[in-house]
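Ticket #4471: structure output looks truncated?

Reporter: J.K.
Steps to reproduce: submitted the chain below (91 residues) through the standard prediction queue, then opened the result file.
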Amino acid sequence: MDEEGIMSVQHIIGGILAGFICFGFQKGYFGITNEVIGVIISLVLVYLLGKHAENKYGRETIGLNSWIMNGIVPFYFICMVIWIVLINYVV
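Returned output as attached by the reporter:
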C-alpha cells in the first residue's frame, strides 16, 4: 500500500480505539462520567496520529488536504460509528 493508504488504516484503528474510550467515559468506566473528556481525548489522538504520519512520511507526502481526507475523516467516521453502536447495543 502507499503512504496514504497506510495512514488511513492507522487512523481507522485509532478511531476504533477512540470510540471505545469515548464510550467508556460516557458510561463512567474510568471513574468519570463525562462525554467531553472522551471527545478531547479523541482530538488529541487524531492530532498525535497526524504528527506521527507527518514524521514518518514527510510533510511533502502527507499534506494538509491528504491528512484531512485520509486521516481525519476516516478517524471521526469510525469513532462516531463505534461510539453510537456501543451506546445503542451495550447495556
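Triage note (M.O.): checked the attachment and the full C-alpha cell line is present. The chain has one domain: 3-89.
Status: closed, working as intended.
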